[in-house]
Amino acid sequence: MHMVTALLGVYRAEIGLVILACMFVAFLRERYPASVVAVLGACAYAVLGLLDEKSLFSVFANPAPLTVAAMLVLSGALIRTGTINRVADIIMTRAKQHPRLALAEVTAGTIVISCFLNNTPVVVLLIPIVFKLAQATAIPVKKLLIPMNAVAVMSGCITLIGTSTNLIVAGIATEQGMDPIGIFTITPYGIAGTLAGIVTLACLSFLLPSDEPAIGGEDGGTVQEYLTELVVPHESDLIGREIGSLSLFGRSIVLLGLKRTGEIRRADLDEEELKAGDRLIVRADGTAIMTLRESGRFELGIAADSETSSHEGTVIEAMVAPSHPATGDRLMDIPFLHALRVRIIGMHRARHLPGPDLTDARIRGADRLLIAGSDDAVRSLRNHPHLMGVDISRTRAFRRNKAWIAILAMAAAVILAALDVISIGLAAFLGVGVILVTRCIDAEEAWSAIDGDVLVLIFAMLAVGLALEQAGSVALMVGWITPLLQVAPTWSLVFVIYFFALLLSELLSNNAVAALMTPITIALARQLGVDPLPLVIALMIGASACFATPIGYQTNALVYAAGDYRFADFVRIGVPLNITVGLAVCTTLVLLN
């Protein structure tokens, strides 16, 4: 025991680096999630006495993770109120009229939105739009998905709130004694990198594959769409209106046909006037169906009893078991529809839309149904032997009437922080309070918008960074590096920090790299007697602008799966993109500092 204590006393810094090396190996092997590895690393430092209890818990006072969480909630409110969805619908309407112009508009819109919103939900929403744009422009979708993702990632480096990585680095830098980094401090360098990246993508698009994805379908597999029918009530104010004049159709709701007196028409429907009892056959995602249900303008779906309303009771989701005795029969003939007071308001089939309409669609195993019914009916369906996964639907209707509140809350947070009235963390926290009290988003949904795994990773890596400082590991590393860099030109430090962060982030979590390298970078700058700000900004952008592997950034993985890319596709276009963006960012940093 005394021997161990003596070794810890003499070789604290070296032992700290050994633990760090073990963590890097664990990160690379990916046997455990990055957050688990980070927590175990922090525990190892604490157990060995390299990090005391007070210091360990002090990381929870760091504002960076909480700012990240608050910004995710604000982004979630924009999605919940349908703001982002509405923007996507406008883009798709433009795409039908001017496909090539719409492509440029999507690029510009992605740049603007990604500056202020977390780019993960932005990319999720853009994937189906890009699939539609590919159809409209006849450009292979694989030539569009990677560039769209790259633009979103690069644009996140234009402002301090564009990515969680930026906020983490800024928070640690402030704790290390640097002046607070403003929301637009990094803008010139982010813009330089984004412009260089766009030019590179345009010039090297021939390196991208042009074959069609073998999986994913027209939405890239990111949207679950249902077949449903909208029934015009007998006293509806829509009677006599032309179908083309309805504003409800867009990306989320697509008109497939009109069913009248048992006959289905598919073409020339825009000028057709609606009559009582008409059924509009549509394809819609779950959120759109719930929004239509809440609006009360249409009766949704089918029911054996015409008095059963889709607006009453609870909506559940259920999967048809392969053993269901009604497999192959019409949906209208499914037994529980006649035995219970329920209404089927949607039917989803993986990679294929059933039809020709909801009534005559043939049942298959694994079909998913949205069912509205009373509490008694729902209890009966839970005990149904041929339905699987019966549960209350988590899909919610958009709260469009509160969209302006969510927009103002986000805009106010950005403006107040930009004018240095209050910090971005406090501004975002106040914005969360506003959207919660005005019910733009429910508390449960707000907390689900926060990626807990990311927050745990950030807090744990902050603890690891603090342990490395207390153990003397940071000083030891700086001592090794300083003699090598003292003979190098000062401007070269920017390039060294940027590309080292880039290399690590292609292999590890970019948030972990940012949390780990920030104190080392600042200590190195002070040891060399140079301004740490350009080096911190280089680290900030280098840790995010990673395009050469599907694991380099979280949205890379989304696009990798949706577009059915190969690993080599990312390497082929990502390596030159990494180089040109890095050179543009670093050169701008050197020239402006």
TrEMBL record:
Keywords: Membrane, Repeat, Transmembrane, Transmembrane helix, Transport. GO terms for molecular function: monoatomic cation transmembrane transporter activity. It is found in: Membrane. Coiled coil: none annotated. The lineage of its organism: Bacteria, Pseudomonadati, Pseudomonadota, Alphaproteobacteria, Sphingomonadales. It is a multi-pass membrane protein. It comes from Sphingobium cloacae. The keyword Transmembrane applies. Residues 215-298, 302-387 form the RCK C-terminal domain. This is TrkA domain protein. The keyword Transmembrane applies.
